[in-house]
């Protein structure tokens, strides 16, 4: 896997595999796709209904994120990318980039894939709460 920034690879290596390179490379390579996010979003839009149906079948109607106080209250479900398609979070966390001089947000970096291993079932509240943040939700089990 070729990350744009080496420190991003280290971040995900620690987050997902506890620093174990072999585990990271063998078990998590499906989670990443460094192509332009617009391409990945276009591809995902074509499969999202089928993916949602499969996730509901797999998990029942139980949110796998469970990060919002009103989790599952709306009974509206979404497929959620565990590793977001793109995020500026690591530009903020690792490179300490606040905002650009013109006030715009830092550049987003392309990370996540549309692979089933990188998708989970989220209720509407948790999905909106997570946004493009990078978290490892409680209760998510690897496929």
Number of helices: 5
Specify the biggest β-sheet: 2 strands, antiparallel
Total domain units: 1
Total count of strands: 4
What proportion of the residues form beta strands (DSSP E)? Answer: 5-15%
Amino- and carboxy-terminal Cα gap = 20 Å
Question: Rg to the nearest angstrom?
Answer: 15 Å
Query: Helix share of residues?
Result: 25-40%
Q: What best-fitting shape do the alpha-carbon axes yield?
A: globular
Instruction: Please identify the structural class as seen in this structure.
Output: alpha+beta
N-to-C SSE series?
HHHEEHEEH
Give the neighbour order of strands across the main sheet.
Answer: 1-4
- Give the integer mean of the pLDDT values: 90
Point out poorly predicted stretches: none
Summarize the structure.
By secondary structure, the protein is α+β, with helices and mostly antiparallel strands. It is built from five helices and four strands. The chain has one domain.
Layout of helices and strands:
Layout: H1 6-17, H2 21-27, H3 37-59, E1 77-81, E2 86-87, H4 89-93, E3 109-110, E4 119-123, H5 124-130
Question: How would you portray this structure in words?
Answer:
This protein has 143 residues and is an alpha+beta fold. It has one domain. The protein is built from five helices and four strands. The chain has a two-stranded antiparallel ribbon with strand order 1-4. It has a two-stranded antiparallel sheet with strand order 2-3. The two termini are 20 Å apart. The mean pLDDT is 90.
Labels describing this entry:
single chain; 143 residues; alpha+beta; two-stranded antiparallel sheet; two-stranded antiparallel ribbon; 5 helices; globular
